[in-house]
């Protein structure tokens, strides 16, 4: 019961979540630099990029759960128009799990091995466990866990990886948050389970109107379920726009190379993004201009000297490249 | 390993050196003969001075001996016992660990089982029993501490040797026809020195405490020779009248052990960042 | 799981056997153990007679088998000084040492574990610095010094607590604190590392992402996971407490087995000393065994492997 993909507009006027100019620093280096994006209710937006480009840090910054070593510089995060950065930690606690929640790459690691599945799902409701039990059972059933009455009292090690991810999704969605951040939710799972979990997420977005930020480094996954994409490179947004538009005509050399490396039948073997020659520079060695210049076939002196701004290249499709017209 | 050393560590190192130098130079820097008794000068408080005998900066003990001089000589005993016993256990423990890690198989099983058993006899008790059997003396003390404390080195040497022996350059050395002994000493030993140094440092502090503890119990350095432990043991009976007999030697002991422990933690963090803080 | 238990039992049995053997040889290090046992002032004929009576004139292997046989029958020999079975003498002192070790353990647990948690949770701040200083002190304090200082302060100057002996729970306070200081440091360090390690795990972030406060995440999830490695050192520390009791009992004239060991050494009653060393070692091995078994029962992952 997939809806036909709506023409691209929603994020522009009713974003459930909007990130503006997010800057994250480690030892003074901007590992995430000026990231902007927005997601609307019922929409799946994919945040794509190679390992280490700052996707997870961006997600943690939204939740305000950054690791000790990482500091937020500039940036503003809005949830339904409310500035989260201005909230106290106590207020933020009421946002987490209720209005935005998050699921993780390794579901087994994201569950406390010594607590039962039910106890962990119940936590997000804020209710005592006995009162939450009915709701937990219903939620477990909704995310496709068979025999929830038995599963609810089991420990994570008794469940498969796919089951654990369903439990995580249940715990993330039980309080009906407006936004779900899914950080590589299927990377650690095998292919058939991957497809099931993605279907589940898609269905939840449509049925519950949840806005989903799906972090992945798999263009195949993007093609499968994302309405829109933001491609990240070395802590910056390289290109963003409608999935269909970007797949049809990428306007950033990095995206173009990613797509070129993808088999035409977008569904079949998934390609990792490591197929482009060269390596992402380390944060300490970021060049002054375009961070992709070291690996870009179109790079010239201008690219190396000046940071390309994100510019509109047509109906909400943005690209941060001095030579976006030259990209085929 | 970055070469930067913090100011705190410099202070710690300076204090340890100060203790060591004081111990080394005890005969020259002591104001008095640590063994000279004088019943007229019993239990004089710190700073006492007499026309005939001079100043007693830290006071005198129950036999009228100068406390500062006894503490300085006591530091000698502490360092001597700690250095020698750590050397003995370091050599014995490392050799066994190298052998176990290199030959593996039943040799390792035998050695490591023995290590487990040794570690399950609380060391201080085994030391007490052994000293009591052999009769207390300086040599007994060193042998006893040396031979009860080697298992920790063996564990570390064994684990490190296993790791190093798996590295390609060891295979290369074997290929070039070098014998086991040569490979172990020339190639393996330098590569496992770091963790052993960490153990040796923490053991050094422990040995200083053990020496003092055994001497306190009357099983270490024998009176009248001065040792921090025996000074305190004697001072205990006069604790109400002559606090300085317990406070000063204990303060010296405590300060030295704190310094050694801080140094040990710092070395561990440096040499093995994974176990930082442990 | 059955195999695990069997393996662990065998390991403990081997350790016990080796310990027993080590003690046998240590007792013979001076050449003639008879000399350790004769009362002061015995003449040569008396010594020879005793040597024969105790079987020390037999070949070493025979002595060894006899010793094993005695131990197997739980026979620790007769004290020639007190003219009583060694085990009875030791037994009468055990409750005191157990009380002392328990007091020290309680002190170490209730101070060390919260300190370790606080150091991990409030890392990098003033709390951690202060607590690390306390931990360092606990780890570096000679018990005979801290003991005397406490006696001086609370016994002599303030007169709050008895300075020595064993009358009532008040007598137990100072020795417990002094003996427990080192274990406190060990628990604090272990807890700190263990909690830090757990705090870095995804499930903590996930719990906070569900809206739990840091405190709630620590209480509900981190502590239980962090407890496992800490529990394994508790048994080791109990062994160290029993051994450390030798000095602390001497300082506070506490009538436990530590004091008995020292009295017996000076009274040349070596069979008692031997019995104490064997007893403490066996308790130590048994405690380690029990923790490992308890550990496997607590952790649902291991429990599930049945
Ligand atoms: N706790 C941390 N301390 C220090 N540096 C960190 C920490 N977490 C991440 N980083 C650094 O920040 C950068 C971005 O990391 P991030 O985890 O956001 O990448 P990612 O895009 O999610 O990659 P992946 O696909 O591997 O998950 C990397 O260079 C990483 O080394
Ligand atoms: S700005 Fe220049 S270097 Fe950067 S992507 Fe565009 S063409 Fe390549
Ligand atoms: Mg990531």
How would the blueprint of this fold be written?
The complex is a heterotrimer of chains A (328), B (278) and C (306).
Chain A: H1 10-13, E1 15-26, E2 29-40, E3 44-48, H2 55-63, E4 70-72, E5 76-79, E6 82-83, H3 89-95, E7 100-103, H4 117-123, H5 129-142, H6 148-151, H7 161-173, E8 179-183, H8 191-208, E9 211-216, H9 219-225, E10 228-233, E11 236-242, H10 243-248, H11 253-260, H12 301-305, E12 311-312, E13 318-319
Parallel strand pairs in A: 3-9, 3-10, 7-8, 8-9
Antiparallel strand pairs in A: 1-2, 1-4, 1-5, 5-6, 10-11, 11-13, 12-13
Helix pairs in contact in A: 4-5, 4-7, 5-7
Chain B: H1 7-24, H2 26-29, E1 48-50, E2 54-56, H3 67-103, H4 105-119, H5 123-134, H6 138-148, H7 151-165, H8 168-175, H9 180-217, H10 228-236, H11 244-271
Antiparallel strand pairs in B: 1-2
Chain C: H1 2-27, H2 34-37, H3 44-54, H4 60-72, E1 78-79, E2 84-85, H5 86-121, H6 126-140, H7 143-157, H8 170-199, H9 202-209, H10 214-251, H11 257-266, H12 270-298, H13 300-303
Helix pairs in contact in C: 1-12, 5-6, 5-8, 5-10, 5-12, 6-8, 7-8, 7-10, 8-10, 9-10, 10-11, 10-12, 11-12
Bound molecules: adenosine-5'-triphosphate (ATP), iron/sulfur cluster (SF4) and magnesium ion.
Search tags:
heterotrimer, A: 328 residues, alpha/beta, 8-stranded mixed β-sheet, 21% strand, disordered N terminus, B: mainly alpha, two-stranded antiparallel ribbon, 2% strand, elongated, binds adenosine-5'-triphosphate, binds iron/sulfur cluster
